[in-house]
Design goal:
Blueprint: E1 4-7, H1 17-30, E2 38-41, H2 46-59, E3 63-68, H3 70-83, E4 88-89, E5 92-93, H4 99-103, H5 110-119, E6 121-130, E7 133-135, E8 138-142, H6 143-149, H7 153-159, H8 168-174, E9 178-184, E10 187-193, E11 195-199, E12 203-204, E13 207-208, E14 221-226, H9 231-243, E15 252-257, E16 259-264, E17 274-277, E18 280-284, E19 287-300
Parallel strand pairs: 1-2, 1-3, 3-4, 3-5, 4-19
Antiparallel strand pairs: 6-7, 6-19, 8-11, 8-17, 9-10, 9-16, 11-14, 12-13, 14-15, 16-19, 17-18
Domain DAGKc: 1-133
Pfam families: DAGK_cat (PF00781), YegS_C (PF19279)
GO molecular function, one term: ATP binding
């Protein structure tokens, strides 16, 4: 690896972002990288980050490092993939949840993460195309998306995964169901569900092993639905959810598939469920998901 693009999020609000950026650059210089081959990129927006990452890939840049959480990493990896070259991804987790990094066992400590980039190994990982977007970790709609909708970046930074419990009671009390038609590898079927969750990794909302059977390059989506839920049952099962154990939650149904389409099957109101991809607001249904197997290469620790 010779050329490096380091993407910095100017809107992160973190006081140590500039210090971390300089520390990363100095670490690479100490390991023999030339200063003229290290470029610090400051995108003006999420879409600009995507375009600049795509441009970096098209130029044949060896390594791209996004500083941030899943939403930032999503844009950078999507852009690199669309660039069409074999640019590698290095991760230095600096978000509040960091699902993607955790699923790859990337250390959360910056120095250890830098060491992983410099001395680790390459691993090919899956992406998912969702309409015109990309997904690296998860898609939610319904209950889980509604709970996350009003959680601010500051709350996530302060409380971590517990921030997502803030609106749980209000959302559960509303007791809204969604009627959807799903098409997977085996055909079409209709469901009534409180939420739909699609994961590509074994971490969600910052909790490891939420989907223990999922790996980052198995070519599969893990899909979860829940037909009914009560606040007490939600609290009863929350520790199981955190451990990735759904055996005690009979209401949750699970299946795996390489592709999935989601459309509304009953529209009583003008309200359509809106999806969230990798923690950020995205399209309303209908949506179509397709796994891109081993689409990008990420630097990971030696196993």
């Amino acid at each position: 690896m010779e050329t490096v693009y380091l993407f910095v999020n100017p809107f992160s609000g973190k006081k140590n972002e500039k210090d971390l950026t300089q520390h990363i650059k100095e670490s690479f210089l100490q390991h023999g990288f030339l200063e003229q081959n290290i470029t610090i990129v400051t995108p003006e927006s999420a879409s600009d980050a995507f375009e600049k990452a795509k441009e970096a890939s098209r130029k044949g840049i060896d390594l791209v490092i996004p500083l941030g959480g899943d939403g930032t990493i999503n844009k950078i990896i999507g852009g690199v993939h669309e660039g069409g070259h074999h640019t590698k991804i290095g991760l230095i987790p600096s978000g509040t949840v960091n699902n993607f990094a955790k699923s790859l066992s990337i250390p959360l400590d910056p120095d250890l993460a830098i060491d992983t980039i410099l001395n680790g190994q390459d691993k090919k990982v899956d992406l998912c195309k969702v309409n015109e977007h990309y997904m690296i970790s998860s898609l939610t709609l319904g209950l889980l998306a509604d709970i996350a909708a009003n959680v601010t970046t500051e709350e996530k930074r302060k409380f971590g995964p517990l921030a997502f419990l803030k609106d749980s009671y209000r959302i559960l009390k509303r007791n809204r169901s969604y009627y959807l038609t799903l098409v997977d590898d085996n055909g079409q079927f209709a469901i009534k569900t409180k939420f739909l969750l699609v994961t590509m990794t074994n971490s969600i909302a910052g909790f490891p092993s939420f989907s223990p059977s999922a790996t980052v390059n198995d070519g599969l989506l893990q899909v979860y639905t829940m037909k009914k839920v009560s606040f007490m049952k939600f609290l009863l099962h929350i520790n199981d959810f955190r451990k990735g154990d759904f055996s005690m939650a009979e209401e949750i149904k699970h299946f795996s598939t390489k592709k999935l389409s989601i459309t509304p099957s009953r529209i009583k109101t003008l309200i359509l469920p809106r999806t969230r991809i990798d923690g950020d607001k995205s399209d309303m249904v209908p949506v179509s998901l397709t796994v891109l197997n081993e689409a990008v290469t990420v630097r990971v620790p030696h196993s």
